[in-house]
């Protein structure tokens, strides 16, 4: 399993393929306010990224996937800011 | 990986299709090219590009490398002109006319002999070289991105969608920058695409933005498998490499080259060509129809007009006071004739929409070969029944589910060559993609001789994912367990692989198939392999129905499945313990009561049973009904909501506007017999 919930945090671990988008969305909708820890995540499918963009959970740590850390993390922050503003 | 050659007839049909299409495309492109000689009109240039692109796609289905090479070179040249990297001048026009001329001559040679003429290789090489030198002239001067020229200058002509992103880039590299806008199709995840996975492959990425393509729906209604993103990016990677990365999604991508040199910014805001791998869907949406079919339609229309005239004469007699009862035979004859003609007309018209599955099947060998290589497996794909015809929409809708099934078969079904050798199997796995007609239905199956599905593993996975309540799970038999692979949220990949892990689950396959009015079943034996069958409607059909009654209710039974109608004394229907049967024409035929099949109460049992004897594949089965109630021709519409209810094919309207349920003999009887066999097992 690459999506696992532990208390208020949902952990993304290893490679998160397209199927995990559904799991992640279900967990985030069932537990609003949960954060997502993605430092152990080494790769994300676009569908998973789309869920993060849409549901904007707070992200904990630096993504273990360098591409996501460099290019996607700033976009997620912006999305969260826009929502806050 | 080989592709089992189909019958000679089919290949001939295919070549004939190609020839007809190639003639049209070459002619249209040549006319457009001549117009280009006068003035460089981007729309015309695009049309030429698309024609060449489509032609290349179709030629790629055959083994004519010299023709393919020329078309490929021409496509590159025209594409460069579209992007503004190459001037649309006499050089390009003349060369492209020469290429089209060669393609036209080769097409005629193919029509005559089935092969390219002698000398094609040399001519092909000359033409390819011509394009090469056009694109990179000997002087090497107009490189679209001369290094070191005005570094950092932001061209004024960046397209609107790239301007914002460009402003965020602090340090521009010296060379050209490519701006790209990628709007993945909403269903791209089902096709196995990972849009950002493509972006990852651009080492020169300078800026990236993601935005929703349409406003986000409310969070609760989020459809995680519908892609709703627009990707905008800037990259310093050379245009050719950018193009290579996005080559499979060209129809979803808009590219602009932001050249640093003055005067030559060439933002090409035209979307790239619609990528069509099947030659059938050429850009102008037209349907190629065999002239014989048109003649038949015209003849039928004539007959129908004559029949109406005859009816008109009867009406005139009635109007002039003729005895109405005396007119009845003439009216009946008229009704019968017009009914027959309208059914025939409908069948012919629907036939225009039929196309052989070969068009879909032929698209698979290449991706499957690539997949197998990527997985380090040896796989042979055999195509069978390619000539089977289905409705065009069904054929088109089948591509993605079948690709998914083939991926699954290659990734999870077929074992590694070493594991196969250990199991005493040939090193190379075998996948068979087969189509066959069964009456008004077409069955398309994907079979592999791999490891099969492990019911124990499925049980464990279903329990772990909470797909089924524990008690229900414990009660499931093997077939029921295997069927769970279609449950949403189930994925049999213990470890998600690069190939099928990109796709989504089998539930997407089932959903796609039910959208087409079909259903799927799976059969698997551990160690021996798996077969997934898709049972699909062949066409929108005007079915001849036999009306049968149970109590007050009427049902339609497709006539084509009915072999004969019989009245049998009840004493001749005997119970053999495994069910009732009777002897008809010296053969034992099982007898099932329609009321039982539909869970309806049985009326009294008359002394003489009315039986509709159905032919199901090689077997016959008799269905007992309370009464026969005539015939009806109707357009049967599948009911998605009833798809899960076996035994029903859909509904049709009766003459007085009532909805009539139409039975599906195959699943009606098949299910019951299957159950009985199942019950009979220890």
TrEMBL record, chain A:
The domain of life is Bacteria
Q: What is this protein called?
A: Uncharacterized protein
Q: What organism is recorded for this protein?
A: Methylobacterium frigidaeris
Automatic annotation (TrEMBL), chain B:
User: CheW-like domain: from which residue to which, for each copy?
Assistant: 542-674
The alphabetized list of GO BP terms reads: chemotaxis
Q: Where is the HPt domain?
A: 7-110
Annotated catalysed reactions: ATP + protein L-histidine = ADP + protein N-phospho-L-histidine
Annotated region described as Disordered, given as residue ranges: 259-284
Which part of the chain is the Histidine kinase domain? 299-540
The UniProt entry, under Pfam families, shows: CheW, HATPase_c, Hpt
- Cellular-component GO terms for this entry: cytoplasm
Q: Which GO terms describe its molecular function?
A: ATP binding; phosphorelay sensor kinase activity
Q: What's the EC number here?
A: 2.7.13.3
The UniProt keyword set, sorted, is: ATP-binding, Chemotaxis, Kinase, Nucleotide-binding, Phosphoprotein, Transferase, Two-component regulatory system
- Comp. bias regions, Low complexity: 259-276
Top-rank lineage group of the source organism: Bacteria
Point out residues bearing the modification Phosphohistidine: 53
Q: What does this protein do?
A: Involved in the transmission of sensory signals from the chemoreceptors to the flagellar motors. CheA is autophosphorylated; it can transfer its phosphate group to either CheB or CheY.
Q: What is this protein called?
A: Chemotaxis protein CheA
- Tell me what organism the protein belongs to: Methylobacterium frigidaeris
Gene name for this UniProt entry: cheA
